[in-house]
Write a structure and sequence with these properties.
α6 packs antiparallel against α7, α13 packs antiparallel against α14 and α19 packs antiparallel against α20. The protein is α+β, with helices and mostly antiparallel strands. β1 and β2 form a beta hairpin. The chain starts with a strand and ends in a 5-residue tail after the last strand. It has a five-stranded antiparallel β-sheet with strand order 4-3-2-1-8, covered by helices on one side. A three-stranded antiparallel β-sheet has the order 5-7-6. The chain has a two-stranded antiparallel ribbon with strand order 9-10. The protein has 21 helices and ten strands. Among the domains are: 103 residues, Winged helix-like DNA-binding domain superfamily/Winged helix DNA-binding domain (Arc Repressor Mutant, subunit A, Orthogonal Bundle), CATH 1.10.10.10; 140 residues, Alpha Horseshoe (Serine Threonine Protein Phosphatase 5, Tetratricopeptide repeat); 70 residues, Serine Threonine Protein Phosphatase 5, Tetratricopeptide repeat, CATH 1.25.40.
Length: 490
């Protein structure tokens, strides 16, 4: 098994396997490419790493402009700027960059400390790793929350001690408080309450599931981009612990199923847990809408609609379920009904971006491009709606789509809106550009990548080798072939 090596230098610690840069207890956010650039430098301290070697390590097989590398170096220097007197990354004019000072490599698996990082020949480029994600300051809270579960003594379905009925009651009260905190949007308080619930009763299986949702909300709340975690998601780990504690807990299996596909992209394993959850708790309506999400993105929209409707029969105005229904109807190519579902969601929360997104996508498929662009302007481009409207008035739908691309064409927009930009390029007939955007979304681990196979906007590029390769990387190729959903997905 490969060792988990961290690198310490100038008071910082860089953990490439966790994609974390730390200064003491503080976690410093890094983009994926900045993390890759830093790894290339720490593996060769005191050595000039040429620009060509760096670009080959960070963008393997891709021709990029030198300015892209300059941006990553600038990002790293800002991240490493706690001590203005220390020049950590030195520019060597016309040659490249050098990490100044010693670097100590540490084996994080608890094995004997490895030797200091050696000086290697400049021509030896560092090994390429898979993409990493943006790490936020909430990482510390996630680690702390999971540590509670470990320290509670829960190991594969056993607890450290049998708590008293009073402890169990207090644990349930804490869980309920935490879930209310999460409904109010206070994820940090929700985590604290679920930690307390687990401390009081380590066998409170549902508290682990509630913790999983709180962890997701907390991490999402500190990032502008919804990204899937690198490695196994902390939410998956918390949800798995709930199943370990009580294998007969339907809600626990449902929560694990959700995070297995939504974060870890383990679609078939998630399907198994959802089916177990429904078998154990057929009347727990909250499980079925989550299962509907998996069914919809794996080419089974008709079943998805059936499942979400079970929940909506009891709670007809649950916003998230209405949006799931709109998405499933869109995937089923029932566009008028998708618009109606989105409108119902907007009657609950008029500023919900997801509802406007699905309304826009369905309108585009119906050939009602002006209305679709107007839907985008309501929330996504709320502060720039006049620019979008003017482009449509002057040049029509095509000009409006190009203006939408222009308005999101900065480094943050190209990542955060990559899945939207891909669909706009597909609508413009730009197959290669659409796939470029899809690959960017995958590279940056955007959660919306799970939608690519089911979305009819990509019907004309579905057979493209790059598109099929992307589905394979995500794990959706078993559900979608070059012409659409495969028979096993029905």
């Amino acid at each position: 098994m490969s060792r988990h090596i961290a690198y310490e230098f100038h008071g910082y610690r860089f953990e490439p396997f966790n994609a974390r840069l730390l200064a003491g207890q503080d976690v410093i956010p890094l983009t994926a490419k900045a993390s890759d650039t830093l790894l290339a430098l720490v593996q060769r301290p005191g050595v000039i790493v040429t620009k060509q070697d760096l670009m080959a390590a960070v963008w393997p097989g891709v021709a990029v402009e030198e300015n892209n590398l300059n941006q990553q170096i600038s990002t790293l220097r800002k991240a490493l700027s706690r001590d203005d007197d220390v020049v950590t990354i030195e520019t060597v004019p016309r040659r490249g960059y050098r990490l100044v000072g010693p670097v100590r490599a540490i084996d994080m698996d608890g094995l004997p400390e490895v030797a200091p990082v050696p000086v290697v020949p400049p021509s030896a480029a560092p090994a390429r790793r898979r993409s990493v994600i943006v790490i936020t300051a909430m990482t510390a809270a996630i680690v702390a929350a999971l540590a509670v579960a470990v320290n509670s003594g829960v190991v594969r379905g056993t607890s450290a001690a049998n708590g008293s009925p009073a402890d169990h009651t207090r644990s349930e009260d804490a869980r309920a408080r935490g879930e209310e905190m999460l409904r109010q949007g206070n994820a940090r308080a929700a985590i604290a309450e679920q930690q307390e619930a687990i401390r009081l009763d380590p066998a409170n299986a549902r508290a682990y599931g509630s913790l999983a949702h709180a962890l997701q909300a907390a991490n999402r709340g500190t990032s502008t981009s919804a990204v899937r975690p690198a490695g196994q998601s902390p939410s998956v780990q918390a949800a798995q612990r709930g199943v370990d504690v009580d294998p007969a807990c339907a809600n626990c299996h449902g929560t694990l199923g959700f995070f297995l596909f939504y974060h870890d992209w383990q679609f078939q394993k998630a399907d198994e847990h959802f089916q177990t959850a429904i078998r154990l708790g057929p009347d727990e309506e909250g499980i079925r809408p989550s299962y509907a999400m998996l069914l919809a993105v794996t080419g089974r929209p008709a079943r998805a609609i059936e499942e979400v409707d079970v929940g909506l029969a009891r709670e007809p105005y649950r916003l998230s379920w209405l949006i799931i229904r709109a998405s499933a109807l869109y995937y089923a190519r029932r566009y008028e009904e998708a618009i109606a579902a989105a409108d119902r969601a907007l009657s609950v929360a008029h500023t919900d971006r997801g509802a406007w997104d699905w309304r826009s996508k369905a309108l585009f498929q119906l050939g009602r491009g002006r209305e679709a662009l107007h839907a985008l302007a309501q929330e996504l481009f709320a502060t720039q709606s006049s620019l979008l409207d003017r482009a449509v008035t002057i040049g029509g739908v095509e000009a409006g789509l190009r203006k939408a691309l222009e308005l999101t064409d900065d480094w943050r927009g190209r990542i955060e809106h990559s899945w939207r930009r891909a669909s706009w390029r597909a609508l413009l007939g730009d197959a290669e550009g659409a796939i470029d955007e899809l690959e960017r979304a995958y590279e940056h681990r955007r959660l919306n990548a799970i939608n690519f196979g089911a979305d009819p906007v990509y019907d004309k590029i579905r057979s493209h080798p790059r598109f099929q390769r992307l589905l394979h990387e995500i794990g959706l190729d078993v559900y979608f072939g070059p012409s659409g959903p495969v028979s096993r997905a029905r």
